[in-house]
Here is the input.
Amino acid sequence: MANSKYEYVKLFEQHFNLLPNTYVVVRIDGRGFHHFEKPNDRRALDLMNAAATALMKEIPEVSFAYGISDEFRYRRPSSGVDGRELIFEKVSFSIVHAICLIGEKVSTFTAYYIHFWPTFFSDKPLSPPMPSFDGRVVQYPSFSNLRDYLSWRQVDCHINNLYNTTFWALVQKGVMGTTEAEEVLKETVAADKNEILFSRFAINYNNEPEQFKKGSVVYRDVSSAPLPDGIGN
Here is the structure.
């Protein structure tokens, strides 16, 4: 009740407002995903992409999303927010509360992930513990910063996938234990891992699916929109 003696409890509420005129990335990350095929499960990745696409259809301010493994990053036009990782056009906006923003995106993504699960895993009905995701917000002041962030994530995707592809080849095809496989890969560089894959298992890493090596992108067609400052035709 307004103006009651209990109203003071509202003072404990804290709002973390996002800065205007920035590119906002919302990272959505899966929690406790351990039951998929290794090193990559195509159905699991396609399920993540389906949930990301549905989120973008429902929340129009999200213009770009980038996903690897069990995480997706959404971006919303500058100053306002959203994303797997998005770009294009800075838009000034009124106060946006970070917690509200994260809650909307994570809950929407989770709802669609569970909704689409039977489409991709009809042979594996869901059971507790149910899939869940956490989220965080990062802001970038310039298009260049945002582009570098996406480049960093894609490089990370490649590094992780090369390691995982080699590790699981050693375990599944080389009949090694996980500890032994870790020892074999300790202090190896990319060239060493490629050599292990090719010489021991006749796997040419360059022929692996691009989705595994580079991640997935979902984007909104904004070809008619003006390009960000500093970006030419």
